[in-house]
Amino acid sequence: MLLENPFAMEGRWFKGNLHTHTTNSDGAWSPDKVANEYRSNGYDFLFITDHWKVTDISGLSQDGFLVLNGAELNIGPSELGYHYHIVALNLKENISSNSVSNAQELINLIKSKGAFALVAHPYWSGLTVNDIQNLDGHIGIEIFNSTCFFCIAKGHSVIHWDDLLCKGKLAWGFAVDDTHQHYNDHRPIDACNAWIMAKMPELTEDNIMNAISSGYFYSSNGPVIHDISIQDNIISVTTSDVKIINFIANAHNGESFTAMDGKPISSARYKIRGGEKYIRVECFDENGKTAWSNP
Ligand SMILES: [Zn+2]
Ligand SMILES: [Zn+2]
Fold first, then answer.
1. Distance 147 CA to ligand 2 centre (A)
2. Percentage of the chain with pLDDT > 90?
3. Could you give the CA distance from residue 132 to residue 169 in angstroms, rounded to a whole number?
4. CA 21 to centroid of ligand 2, rounded, Å
5. Nearest to residue 48, comparing CAs of 64, 65, 33, 35?
6. How far is the CA of 120 from the centre of ligand 1 (A)?
7. What separation in Å is there between the alpha carbon of 2 and the centre of ligand 2?
8. How far is residue 122's CA from residue 108's CA, in Å, rounded to a whole number?
9. Tens of pLDDT along 83-133?
10. How far apart are CA 69 and CA 47, in angstroms?
11. Cα(21) to centroid of ligand 1, in Å?
12. Which ligand is nearest to the CA of 83?
């Protein structure tokens, strides 16, 4: 579904988190501390997305590290009576909750402000595929969310993603932290745990927005995808050492490759059979950490 393969594009990979809270909503860390933590953990860019508030990011960017504006906005009702959470990326001014009455109007408003809408944590929100397939104008959904995973084990939303893709709805899949920096003796901290790797010529706001809206990235909370190429109807993938590499497609299509004899694998090849409506790659390491390509 990608128009251009990011693995074949010029440029380099930049690491970023798209969903971050601070003390300006229900996060435990100040904007300054959050930015410092991500920068010192090797991230290149960070969106700060407080609930219904565009946090002041002035002074947070440094050489080689870019902080961008955003906010997280919620609105109901979904099919089951819950709320959609929508992350507005690159939103530069506050939006009032009074000005919209449903999720589609909220996405339209986000777009009218020059920002991009991302459907947050569908599994945690209790959203069904019906809820999401009727939305237009967003760039995709969160397929992994660290805080939802550590809090209530509802971090993964890949079934929602595959349902959308099966129905022909193009949506990019994003791994994010949604960090709130709350933790306890049975809940790890949700910061610097999941990310996207975006391919671009250099780190600028425009390039980041282009990469995330065009799907020029992959998601991970551990493994590295080194390369994905397609030649003569064969998809070849190389990764860091992993236990499983999956080619996921609609319905019964696709194929899974599992490491045998206790030795890890780092490559796999899949011959396109013809029934695939889309194909995406995912790989799992021995600790269950995962990387996901876009379709
Ligand atoms: Zn949320
Ligand atoms: Zn959030």
1. 8
2. 97
3. 9
4. 6
5. 35
6. 6
7. 27
8. 19
9. 999 999 999 999 998 889 999 999 999 999 999 999 999 999 999 999 999
10. 6
11. 10
12. 1
For residue 140, give the H/E element and its range: strand 138-145
CATH level 2 (architecture), domain 6-219: Alpha-Beta Barrel (3.20)
Tokens read off for 190 = 């949700």
Query: 1: pLDDT confidence band, cut at 50, 70 and 90?
Result: confident
- First-to-last C-alpha distance (Å) of the chain: 6
Å from CA of 101 to ligand 1 middle: 18
Q: Do 293 and 280 contact (CB within 8 A), yes or no?
A: yes
What is the whole-number distance in angstroms between the Cα of residue 294 and the centre of ligand 2? Answer: 22
Q: In whole angstroms, what is the distance from residue 283 CA to residue 290 CA?
A: 6
Residue where the block lists tokens 């876009």: 294
Q: Closest ligand to 51 CA?
A: 2
CA–centroid distance, 72 to ligand 1, in Å, is: 7
CA 85–ligand 1 middle distance (angstroms): 5
Task: Tell whether the model's pLDDT for residue 262 goes beyond 90.
Answer: no
Is the pLDDT assigned to residue 291 strictly greater than 90? Answer: yes
Q: Please list, residue by residue across 52-66, b when 16 or more beta carbons sit within 10 angstroms of its beta carbon and e when fewer do.
A: ebbbebeebbeeebb
Ligand 1 midpoint to CA 265 (Å): 36
Q: For the residues of 212-248, what is the DSSP string, one character each?
A: HHHT-EEEESS--EEEEEEETTEEEEEEEEESEEEEE
The answer on pLDDT for 220 being more than 90 is yes
Contact 234, 273 (CB under 8 A): no
